[in-house]
Write a structure and sequence with these properties.
Elements lengths: L2 H7 L10 H21 L9 H12 L9 E2 H11 L5 H12 L9 E4 L17 E4 L4 H4 L9 E3 L6 E3 L8 H5 L1 E4 L4 E4 L4 H13 L5 H5 L12 E3 L2 H9 L1 E7 L1 E5 L8 E6 L6 H13 L6 E6 L8 E5 L5 H11 L3 E7 L1 E4 L2 E4 L2 H42 L1 H10 L3 H12 L3 H9 L2 H6 L2 H23 L1 H19 L6 E3 L16 E7 L3 E6 L5 E2 L6 E2 L9 E8 L3 E6 L3 E6 L13 E2 L12 E7 L4 H4 L3 E6 L3 E6 L11 E2 L9 E7 L3 E7 L3 E6 L13 E2 L9 E8 L6 E6 L3 E6 L13 E2 L10 E7 L3 E7 L3 E6 L13 E2 L9 E8 L19
Parallel strand pairs: 8-17, 20-40
Antiparallel strand pairs: 1-3, 2-3, 4-5, 6-7, 8-9, 9-14, 10-11, 11-13, 12-13, 15-16, 18-19, 18-22, 19-25, 21-40, 23-24, 23-26, 24-29, 27-28, 27-30, 28-33, 31-32, 31-34, 32-37, 35-36, 35-38, 36-41, 39-40, 39-42
Helix pairs in contact: 3-4, 4-5, 8-13, 8-19, 13-16, 13-18, 13-19, 14-15, 15-16, 18-19
EC number: 5.6.2.2
Catalytic activity: ATP-dependent breakage, passage and rejoining of double-stranded DNA
Protein name: DNA gyrase subunit A
Length: about 850
């Protein structure tokens, strides 16, 4: 548009041409700053947003002190809306309600009478029903406001004055925190403990160079009004240092045993800050409905005026700890509080480390104390000046009375006194303002005493103004008084344990399971109590259904949380968590091991070891001792197997045709016994084998006869009364012999007879070390499983034939054996559902 066209449009001088981009930019910035400074963000000095400041000031002006009677909330809302805050009454009332909620503020500033909402998300009653007054601690925010300590500004229509900030003796921003969303930014400041904050500010005053770590020894971290537990200190350090961080908060929950019907229950007594309890219960119920958590039997809210109590009953066969971990992962029983220490500093928004927040508070309090001292000094000086005039009047009382009587009017009398006694106008006026009977009763002694006290006060106040350290000392004393009068115990516990993301292991119940591997490479896990304990010679129950040509080859008992090291015939080792093996039942075939491990078609799992901890600090000196079919043996330190890639690693170097037969976990204090298929066995000290690298081939353990091979290896403590050796043959026969019957030899010998491999017995399947506390789990090639009490197998000599252990069907043979610890209550429960643990 040309200049001429502009002039033709601007007929009345009210229309001006502007660039629309610049105009929108300026207008938006003005709007944004208005929201940031005037509505959404707290001032770093008093920790209040404008609406909260206006509410406190308005209630103070209305005389609603903590020791006065309550007034209707509607009256407060109307007064504040009409005088200071031209916004909706509902927004003002919501802000008033928050100041009275003990689950929103750590130390409430408004004392509410009536329904002000609840942690369940219930709304407060209408403002016409509720009543309010200031809390006692709110006086600490407003004290000295009438002493010119803070600047006042015009209200929205210029008809009144309102404070731009409160004197705020209490460090409110840290104590009660704040949250708000402005334009392009948001603040989220947690609540803290008043006692700790006071001590921390005092430390900052006394030691300006205090470090963040030193501050963390004083102010431990957030102290939420709803309590709960903060997990870890990293997030606390982050926002202490930078003003931003994330704090993990977890509900306080305990597991109570022996509830209704013997059920265990999770009892929640504290929940994370700003979590709605009703929504939390609905979320838990939703998990049960969607079958994401299956072990919850009932949910009850037993909260009352004594406190919160949320009861989550767990089913009889459920694990309460696992259920609780599920709830931590999927509900707001565990949350993250994202801290953003954003506040208004000198009219501009800034993100502040906690030490800077304290410095800003101290700076504000120095200004308030200085202004208050100056106000008190001015007042004291004026009073002392008046007292000087009164003393002159007392000394010349008759003459003063005469001058007043002879004056035509008060003005003449005032100036006559000024001329006669060289008084100031205020002094002369003070004499005239007093009644005659007061003049006659004036006591020069009392006035002189008051004057003396005022002169001392004036000297003290001047000393404060001249010495900044005295100002700081006053602030320190005030903080100590705050702590003494209002300090409370910490509500939120801070745990040193950093809360990492929930792992799958945390969500899996730890229980003892039987893991089976078939000859064709199918794996499954079954709860151990599925099997019944049977008498010797029983027929057993089905432990795994297989194809006609397949049979159960490996069986071991372990925990679902254990790491299973699976060793293959080719000398490689793979790592798998027990819970990663799919659960099946007695009749299921299981899942192909090739779908779980990157195992080739040329190799099979030949041995497995369950490891609970690879750290030598916890597990001690630990080795994996391996034996091959050709009688070679080696030891490798357990730590060499801590990190195994998915494709597996080499565990032992093998000669052509040799395979890995057995792997045992030893601790350097054992004797080893190696048994062969033809019934030979050798016992020697494991220290005869030095520790080797993973790829070493090992040394000779036993010298084998023609066509003989190793079928098993076991270990027992040296020279100690240990378990017996149980040898089991393929036709269901076996015998139990004391370990001491096998004399110690040097490794590499031919060994001695352990059991005769007659036509009745058949070849040896394996050996196991057992005692009275164990049962024997036997699996046949056709998938039958029998659990036998070892105490029913009597101990005999090495040359004995043995006894029948299992009655086999025609053409069936024993494939695998494993010992398990017998449950202590087995006799009482009739042999059903024993809960043993693995002994490998």
């Amino acid at each position: 548009m040309s200049e001429k066209e502009n002039q033709s449009v601007d007929l009345f001088g009210n229309i001006k041409s502007r660039d629309i981009g610049e105009e929108m930019k300026r207008s938006y910035i003005d709007y944004a700053m208005s929201v940031i400074v005037g509505r959404a963000l707290p001032d770093v000095r008093d920790g209040l947003k404008p609406i909260h400041r206006r509410l406190l000031y308005g209630m103070n002006e209305m005389g609603l002190k903590y020791n006065k009677s309550f007034k209707k909330s509607a009256r407060v809302v109307g007064d504040v809306m009409g005088k200071y805050h031209p916004h909706g009454d509902s927004a003002i009332y919501d802000s008033l309600v928050r100041l009275a909620q003990d689950f929103s503020l750590r130390d409430t500033l408004v004392d509410g009478q009536g329904n002000f909402g609840s942690v369940d998300g219930d709304m407060a009653a209408a403002m016409r029903y509720t009543e309010v007054r200031l809390e006692r601690i709110a006086d600490e925010m407003l004290n000295d406001i009438d002493k010119n300590t803070v600047k006042f500004m015009d209200n929205y229509d210029g008809s009144m004055q309102e404070p731009s900030v409160l004197p705020a003796k209490m460090p409110n921003l840290l104590v009660n925190g704040s949250s708000g969303i402005a334009v392009g930014m948001a603040t989220n400041i947690p609540t803290h403990n008043l006692s700790e904050v006071c001590d921390a500010v005092i430390e900052v005053i006394k030691n300006p160079g205090v470090t963040t770590k030193e501050l963390m020894n004083i102010i431990k971290g957030p102290d939420f009004p709803t309590g709960a537990i903060i997990c870890g200190r990293k997030g606390i350090f982050d926002y202490f240092e930078t003003g931003k961080g994330s704090v993990k908060v977890q509900a306080r929950a305990e597991i109570e045993e022996g509830g209704r019907g013997g059920r265990s229950a999770i009892v929640v007594t504290e929940i994370p800050y700003q979590v709605n309890k009703t929504n939390l219960i609905e979320a838990i119920a939703g998990l049960v409905k969607d079958k994401k958590v299956t072990d919850i039997a009932d949910i009850r809210d037993e909260s009352d005026r004594r406190g919160m109590r949320l009861v989550i009953e767990v089913k009889r066969d459920g694990d309460a700890r696992v259920v609780l971990n599920h709830l931590y992962k999927h509900t707001q029983l565990q949350t993250s509080f994202s801290v953003n220490m954003l506040a208004i500093v000198d009219g501009r928004p800034r993100i502040l480390p906690i030490k800077e927040v304290m410095k800003c508070y101290v700076k504000h309090r120095k200004e308030v104390v200085t202004a208050r001292t100056r106000f008190d000094l001015n007042k004291a000086q004026k009073r002392e000046h008046i007292l000087q005039g009164l003393l002159i009047a007392i000394a010349n009382l008759d003459k003063v009375i005469k001058i007043i009587r002879e004056a035509q009017d008060p003005t003449e009398a005032k100036f006559a006194l000024i001329r006669e006694f060289a008084l100031s106008e205020p002094q002369s006026q003070a004499i005239l303002d007093m009644r005659l009977h007061q003049l006659t009763q004036l006591s020069s002694a009392s006035i002189e005493k008051e004057q003396k006290e005022l002169l001392a006060l004036i000297a003290e106040l001047k000393g404060i103004l001249e010495d900044p350290q005295k100002v700081l000392a006053i602030i320190v004393d005030e903080l100590k008084g705050l702590k003494k009068d209002y300090g409370t115990e910490r509500k939120t516990e801070i745990s040193n344990t950093e809360l990492s993301d929930m792992t799958m292991e945390d969500l899996i119940e730890e229980e003892d399971v039987v893991i089976t591997l078939s000859n064709d490479g199918y794996a499954k896990r079954i709860p151990l109590d599925t099997y019944r304990t049977q008498n010797r010679g029983g027929k057993g129950v089905i432990g795994g259904k297989t194809k006609e040509e397949d049979f159960i080859e490996h069986l071991f008992v372990t925990s679902t949380h254990a790491t299973i090291l699976m060793f293959t015939t080719r000398g490689r080792v793979f790592s798998l968590r027990a819970y990663e093996i799919p659960e099946g039942n007695r009749l299921s075939k299981g899942k192909a091991i090739v779908n779980l491990l990157q195992i080739s078609n040329e190799e099979k799992i030949t041995s497995a070891v369950a490891i609970e901890d690879f750290d030598p600090k916890n597990s001690g000196e630990t080795y994996l001792t391996m034996c091959t079919r050709f009688g070679l043996i080696k030891r490798v330190e357990l730590g060499d197997f801590a990190n195994i890639r998915k494709s597996g690693i080499i565990a032992i170097g093998l000669e052509d045709g040799d395979v890995l037969t057995s792997v045992q976990m030893t601790h350097g204090k054992s004797d080893l016994i190696i048994a062969t298929r033809d019934g030979k066995a050798i016992r020697f000290d494991e220290e005869q084998i030095r520790a080797m690298g993973r790829q070493a081939k090992g040394v000779r353990g036993i010298r084998l006869g023609k066509d003989d091979i190793v079928v098993g290896m076991e270990h027992a403590l040296k020279d100690a009364p240990g378990p017996d050796v149980l040898s089991v043959c393929e036709n269901g026969y076996g015998k139990r012999t004391e370990f001491t019957e096998y004399r110690k030899q040097n490794r590499g010998g031919s060994g001695t007879i352990t059991i005769k491999t007659t036509e009745r017995n058949g070849k040896v399947v394996g050996i196991k070390l057992v005692d009275e506390s164990k049962d024997l789990m036997v699996i046949t090639e056709n998938g039958m499983a029998v659990r036998i009490r070892c105490e029913e197998i009597r101990s005999v000599g090495r040359n004995a034939q043995g006894v029948r252990l299992v009655k086999l069907a025609e053409s069936d043979k024993i494939a695998r054996i494993a010992p398990v610890i017998k449950d202590n209550d087995e006799e009482a429960c009739g042999g059903e559902e024993a809960v043993p643990k693995e002994l490998i």
